[in-house]
Specification:
- With 505 residues, the chain is α/β, with parallel strands linked by helices.
- It is 25% helix and 27% strand.
- It contains eleven helices and 33 strands.
- Strands 14-13-10-7-30-27-25-22-19-16-15 form an eleven-stranded parallel sheet. Strands 1, 2, 3, 4, 5, 6 and 33 form a seven-stranded antiparallel sheet that branches. Strands 11-8-31-28-26 form a five-stranded parallel sheet, with no helix packed on it.
- Helix 2 runs antiparallel to helix 3.
Length: 505
């Protein structure tokens, strides 16, 4: 919130009166009265101006808050603007306060950059409301007694900017967020706009480098144990800040996404997810694998739910030459306990490949689908997973997602293409190889995330990688993390918050 009060330029009202030579005694008396009135005016008029200013402050804050809530909900600019105007009228009514805004210029949808604390170009994530009582709206705050001193009026102005975005200093939805301890072993690079947060502690043994505008946070900086200094981890002194973040419950988020994807009813989340997906032209393999009947095949539309068994899912991979028909939700139901082919499914082969009918080096492609299952998932070296959502609700004390080196997940070109992003949601902890999380991959895990060390000594680059864990997160050495575009899919736990900000001029 910024505010200004400016008095109009004084006019010499008393000068002309006193210039008359007649009635000196009367003039002196009137002059004394004028002086008394001006002294009284110094108490009354500025007080009234400040009172009007505070009223505009509250009205601008309320209107900006209403505006950003509506904007973040996806309402049209016209509807957002209408709600802002309604709020202004409720808190600074025209009948009582007079006109306070030039609508088109004083209600703005802007983008706020937390790292630079300035307004920048790009999609709007903030609403700026300016309210003023001045000559531009023909409604300045009129002076009373001070008019005798030539002060005709005061000009009052209030500006409020309400922002909806990532907490702290980062404006990217990419980052590492854990309720348990987050460990970055050594030699890792945290790039601009990328954040690392733990609700317990971030442990940084040595030589992890933080780029300008990156961030690392925890509720109590004492948990850093002396490592939040540039001599131990270069750049961290500018990046570190203390923050207590109310992380959403991961299990609730996964349950909500699962319910939405399996529902036959339309929802904004499911509609948005399938907006860039293509329904496969040939759906006959679903009938061949006896997953559905011919009549059911004809009724399939984008986002329809099909329910193969684990063996039918693997047969489908064989029937399609390793290309899962896109545009659908696959709901695969496994046995609750035990091991073997009834408790897991395979994508892309592995040492215990379930679909042995395919050649050993045949790729298996999962693209443009949602896969929701209570199975464990084996991801082999010949897996190609692209523009998809994979959810496993299986509860296990061991990793429910087993991955081999060589699997290609997300965008292998690391171009930050959100149309290729892959979301992995699991109700149990996972252990994955370092390349699995390379580009445009989001891990949302109701447990621990363990990223295995790279099999070679080369550095592993991650771009657009997000990790959200109910438990701890373990990152080995020699990884780089860079942010991509903001992800507004709704498939990540919502860490964005509403807050008032004060952009730099």
């Amino acid at each position: 919130m910024t505010q200004t009060i400016r008095a109009s330029a004084p006019k010499s009202v008393t000068r002309d009166f006193l210039a008359s030579q007649a009635g000196n005694t009367t003039a002196l008396s009137l002059f004394g009265i004028a002086i008394c009135c001006m002294i009284g005016g110094l108490a009354i008029d500025p007080s009234n101006a400040f009172s009007q200013k505070e009223r505009l402050n509250l009205a601008a804050d309320a209107a900006a808050q209403v505006g950003i809530v509506a904007l973040s909900s996806g309402e049209s600019p016209a509807d957002v603007r209408a709600k802002v105007l309604t709020s202004i009228e409720q808190n600074a009514p025209l009948s009582k306060v007079g006109r306070t805004t030039n609508e088109l210029n004083d209600i703005q949808f802007v983008r706020f950059d937390p790292s630079s604390r300035s307004l920048t170009s790009g999609s709007a994530n903030a609403v700026k409301v300016t309210l003023h009582r001045d000559e531009s709206v023909s409604n300045p705050v009129r002076a009373t007694l001070l008019r005798l001193a030539g002060v005709e009026h005061f000009e009052v102005r209030a500006v409020s900017v309400a922002h909806y975005g990532q907490p702290g200093r980062c404006d990217s939805s990419d980052g590492i967020y854990g309720k348990g301890q987050v460990t970055l072993t050594s030699g890792n690079w945290i790039g601009p706009r990328y954040c690392v947060h733990s609700q317990t502690a971030v442990w940084l043994p040595q030589q992890n480098t933080f780029a300008p505008s990156s961030g690392v946070s925890m509720p109590n900086l004492a948990a850093c144990k002396g490592k939040c200094v540039d001599s131990a981890n270069p750049g961290i002194e500018a990046a570190v800040f203390q923050m207590n973040l109310n992380l959403p419950k991961v299990s609730d988020h996964i349950a909500s996404v699962t319910q939405t994807m399996l529902s036959s009813e339309a929802s904004p989340l499911k509609t948005a997810f399938f907006a860039n997906k293509t329904l496969a032209a040939d759906l006959a393999p679903l009938t061949t694998a006896k997953i559905i009947t011919k009549s059911q095949e004809k009724a399939l539309v984008k986002g329809s739910v099909v329910t193969p068994t684990p063996s039918q899912f693997n047969d489908l991979m064989y029937n399609t030459g390793g290309k899962l028909p896109g545009g659908l939700v696959y709901h695969v139901d496994c046995r609750d306990k035990g091991n073997g082919p009834t408790t897991s499914i395979s994508i892309g082969g592995s040492a215990n490949r379930k679909n042995s009918a395919l050649p050993p080096n045949a790729t298996e492609v999962v693209r443009d689908v949602a896969l929701v299952t209570d199975c464990a998932i084996d991801v082999g070296q010949y897996a190609r997973i692209d523009n998809s959502l994979i959810v496993t609700t299986r509860l296990s004390s061991s990793s429910v997602l087993n991955t081999d080196e060589g699997a290609v997940v997300g965008d292998p070109l690391k171009n930050c293409d959100l149309n290729r992003k892959v979301y992995i949601l699991t109700m149990s902890g996972i252990s994955v190889n370092s390349n699995f999380t390379a580009s445009n991959v989001a891990l949302v895990v109701n447990g621990d995330i363990n990223v295995a060390a790279n099999s070679s000594s080369t550095e592993v680059e991650h771009r657009g990688t997000s990790m959200h864990a109910e438990g701890s997160i373990q990152i080995p050495s020699s990884h780089t993390f860079n942010a991509c575009s903001e992800d507004t899919s709704g498939l990540l736990p919502n860490l964005r918050t509403f807050k008032f900000v004060m952009p730099k001029a």
